[in-house]
Amino acid sequence: MSQQTFEFHWGKHHRAYVDTCNNLIKDTELENCMLEEIIKKTYNNGDPQPAFNSAAQAWNHEFFWECMKPQGGKKPKGEILELIEKDFDSYYEFLKEFKQAAATQFGSGWAWLVLKDDKLAIEKTPNALNPLVWGHVPLLTIDVWEHAYYLDYQNRRPDYISVFMNELVSWDAVTARLVKAKEASST
Amino acid sequence: MALLASLRRTGGIGLKRGGLFTREIQSFSLPELSYEYSALEPVISGEIMSLHHQKHHQAYVTNYNKALEQLEEASANKNSEAIVSLQSAVKFNGGDNYEGSVYESPGHINHSVFWKNLAPVKEGGGEAPNGGLAKAIDTQFGSLNALIVKMNAVGAALQGSGWVWLGLNKDLKSLIVETTPNQDPLVTKGLLPLLGIDVWEHAYYLQGYFCCSEC
Question: Distances from the Cα of B23 to the Cαs of B26, B70, B85, in angstroms?
Fold first, then answer.
């Protein structure tokens, strides 16, 4: 993922969502809410209010950056691998299903690995939507809006997805989220 | 504003459909452009035009033909489950919420309209319309400039991927600016497309615009 992509993606797109969200919540009851609370409130049971798009996209992008690290990717180890093998039969089955979800999210959107009812699941969402609105716990995401990959891969979304999984995913971050989610559900 | 400088004076679909609604499965092909890929520079780069036409539009045509072949085979085998699944695949290549004929591909049709709505400057691209269309624009929007401002604003506000259209309500005989998400065709809003602007990011991103209102 090139520096130029980051400069645009983080420096322009993500920044615009943050600025827009701040402008929309200013002087409203949402102004002092945490971002996740703003997302759930403005989702409004599927009839989103104006701030939802920018709030959700601000969250999605921050989450996405934390899903990656230099020299990342490949097969994970430890607790997350055990859970993947339990809920998907194998890492390769999970990989196939995650890549398929990412490749087939039509138009703009995201693919997710989530914890749902104590099991791992793969979901895909259009535009700004994310699994927080359904009470699922996001563990990993890949941004499949065209701006995420077009400068580096043009129309070749499957190539971008493969590189993301092989070289960029931070399984440490995914594991930390899993541990936190399990702790939260046991209290 | 700069993009509209390359648009033709007259709209219209200009797409021959021939045989779409027969029971024989037709094989669709990528329409040729009437201008070189570089002919719309500097407004739209040759690189974008080439990718957009040869990769994105071609993919809709290829996948649509494949889905139609598979649908034909499933129909011949009376495989109901496959038929339902493949109709979704046809819509997937066309548009998520398109409820029209399974024999049409909105992604293919939308792009075919798009290429015909563009022309090099030396062939009239960007010139103001005249005649009945010009009068209708002035009557309904105040001026061509007002229409351009409105289409820019509406296009910039579209979330995700989609299209901005100038459409005709045939019953009311009025022009409407409308958007559709993804590849949903304008007929889903009951309008005839006169002019369409592709605002999927692939249509402009390589030229350094980070949102469609910049172009």
Answer: 9, 14, 19
